[in-house]
Amino acid sequence: MKKRIVSALLLCAMATSLLVGCGGGSSSSEPTTTADGKLQIDLWYSGGKTAVNVFQEIVDDFNASQDEYEVATTTQADYTETYEKLQAGIAGKNAPDMALLGTANSRNLSEKNLVADINEFVDADDEFDKEDYIPVFYDQGVDADGKLFALPAYGTTQVLYYNKQIFADAGIDPTTIKTWQDLEAAAEKITTDSVVGWEPMWGYGNLVDAALSNGASLLSEDGETCLINSKEWVDVWESFRKWIHDDKIMKVNSGGQGWEYWYTTIDDVLQNKAGGYTGSSGDQADLDFNIVGAIEQPGFNDNPSAPTADALQLVMLEGSSDEEKQGVYEFMKYFTTPENQAKWSMATGYVAVRESTQEVPDFKAYTDENPHALVPLQQAMHGTSALIDPTGGKILDALKIAADQVELENVPAQEALDAAQATAQEALDAL
User: Phi-psi bin for 4: left (phi > 0), alpha (psi -120 to 50), beta?
Assistant: First the structure.
């Protein structure tokens, strides 16, 4: 799930000496061998309750499939915690060999030379089929110099989940929702004293997606100017502020531990308290599709839909030994086989990163019976790659603060985004 991929809190504090960071069995210690003689590969990851279990099943299958490597997993509360603990682990020379991260965090580590270039392993592997990886996901792991700093484990994009009965009772055909203004009109019809029309998911992700679907850009073409207070951004964010605080046809659940806010939002829709919500493709494992349906995010006004199609990535820690890195690569390949991508996507709802997954017989049969499962993939095909923040996360941090101001504090969008732009531009100018 795209559960708020958050930028670094500690990266700026890392000393130059950490640029040779250390894997779990790296320069700080000898590689670990298990009782049955396998080389241990340490992996840190997170996910929702269903995703964690399915991920572990694939790990267990990998461990049983060969006699050379044993992947040992440690789960974290969420993606943010994984990243923060990973930084602490690198600093303390107690990091794993591999981690599951969001794109911004993977890129930040790569820019500090803390993750390895996977090209070395890909180039030596005649069986690696780069062309079968969906470009919008694969390309997010490649930097401007061609370094392959991460492989996509799975994709995620946020779609619209609507309560079928509530929409029917209000006389709303979900296929007519082509713009955010259409959704506004639907939310107005749905909202009563006991039901709210729509629930955007807490965080800047929904707001960014809608802005991208209004033609917004993060930076100018020359990369010198941050544009997050332009009209394309402000019009969208102010609309959401109005819908939430003035019109009260939308609501945002926030706070709690981990992804508590996320499941509260899902429960509202499943319990007929909300007409629908904007949520991750990965939510499909937790939803009852007898109650809800799925449609793509719309465009804003007359603009085409262009929401983020994000990748969750596996990275190889630079400090691990050559033998451990080889084991990491073997697991990366295993996790992204079409068969495992099919298993993962069917069980979790996340988007497969291999084109040929669609030809796996079980997946074809599943999507024929469950067409909602194809909605995230269809959306990803015209989605926008995850935003690249050249400041190492400071622009995205500023957007996060502004989003909370707009969604939770009822601060006018122009005011919140002007402040965010000033902070972001200062960081950009300092490069």
Answer: left
